[in-house]
Amino acid sequence: MMKYYNISKSNYHLIMSGDGNVLVSQTYAIDVKCPRITEDQKTEITRILDDILPFQSGQSYQYQEQTDDYIYQKYKDNVQKGWPVSKSYLIYKILARENVHHSKTPSFCPLCERYDKGERTEKVLHHQSILPYQRKRYMEDKQRIGKGDIETILITQDFTQLDLDSGFIQDLIICCYWHNSNSKDGLARDYRHFVGQKGVKNDVSFVAGCWKELLKETWFDRASTVLIWSDGGPKHFKISANLKLFQAIQMEMDSIHWEYHFFPAYHGCNVCDAVASQAKKKMNEESRNLHEAIKTPEKAMEKINKLANHQAIPAQISKIALTSDTLSQLTRYFKFTAPINEDNIYAFENSYCTDFAVFWEISERVNLEDL
Ligand SMILES: [Zn+2]
Q1: 265: CA distance to ligand 1 center in Å?
Q2: Tens digit of pLDDT for each residue in 284-293?
């Protein structure tokens, strides 16, 4: 005996008339008591959680007390009960109740907003002073490569979450640029995805395992300088362990000069964001057009690999923890180097500085092979 659906009249009314519910499909699953959440709704929820929330929540999304999965499930469950898919619903009905802070900022950066309101604390002023340098330096590096600098490779990296039908997985996106005189803007690009299995955390072991894999490729040899850029993700990038990894990379690839640069807080990597949304869009399209559920990381990679310039492979996770000397006040600095034949990691106040501000002596250097 088939059960259809068992929703109350008032809920049905809510679904059909609610703000964000133009997307709700009228098809119901057999044996399921409530309307199925549609692919469009899922995409929209993910977009809100991934792209809007991290900026507008007023603090890094990673600092929330609830896990991403929990927030997502809660959001999804409520949408299934008939609540609208909308930003304000998420903010006022879910985040507020879960104590995730939200600031009503029109600009996406809470520090810039505090500056606009007249705050002149050290933190806010430092943020303002660093912004123009980092933005400009990144643009200049990219343009210089476009104009014919064949010696430099520019790399940006960031994590994104992919939403499979079976839950979230992590994708470390590494975007590589180098000069190509045949392309319009003078740049060749390669978007690499390192896709983790379900339940694998986006921590520094993830980053380390994937870099170890990436460095096996020979194309780095074409450059004498590699510039890595990332946001200051406090869980995986702007931490002592990741800089120890960076030092290990420098030691392993010692014919290349490596620099690690950070974007200012809340002003992350647009390229990686765009690459992430291309991948998500492709997965959605394919899933919809082919009526095919994407349940495994392998399936996700298959879809991403259909995109030009994108290449997805399974993430390798380092088995050894990168325990680390703590590099004190690390977050104050925005450029790092780790010269070969030295044990030191040098920190610079911004990416234009040629004189270091501080350095730390690393007592136990990591060997990439051991990771
Ligand atoms: Zn800002």
Answers
A1: 7
A2: 999 888 888 8
Cα 127 to averaged position of ligand 1 atoms, centre (Å) = 6
Residue 109 lies in a domain: no
Do 134 and 80 share a structural domain?
no
How far apart CA 258 and CA 265 sit, in angstroms, is 22
Q: What's the gap in Å between 111 CA and the centre of ligand 1?
A: 5
pLDDT in tens, 143-175: 999 999 999 999 999 999 998 888 899 999 999
Q: Copy the structure tokens of residue 26.
A: 């009228």
Indicate whether 247 belongs to any domain. yes
**Cα 268 to ligand 1 centre (Å):** 10
**Residue range of the domain that includes 56:** 9-95
**Chain segment 2-51, per-residue pLDDT in tens:** 223 334 455 545 545 544 333 343 344 444 455 677 777 777 777 676 65
> How far does the centroid of ligand 1 lie from the alpha carbon of residue 55, in Å?
10
Q: How many CB atoms lie within 10 A of CB 92?
A: 12
Query: How far, in Å, from the CA of 115 to the mean position of ligand 1?
Result: 9
Q: Considering only CA atoms, which of 187, 102, 193, 106 is closest in space to residue 153?
A: 187
Residue 291: φ, ψ to 5°: 45, 50
Instruction: Verify that 82 and 196 share a domain, yes or no.
Output: no
**Domain annotation covers residue 3:** no
Ligand 1 centre distance from Cα of residue 58 (Å): 11
pTM beyond 0.85: no
Q: Is residue 4 part of a domain?
A: no
One domain, residues 166 and 281: yes
Q: Specify whether 213 is located in the same domain as 333.
A: yes
Q: What angle do CA 360, 365, 370 make, to 5 degrees?
A: 150
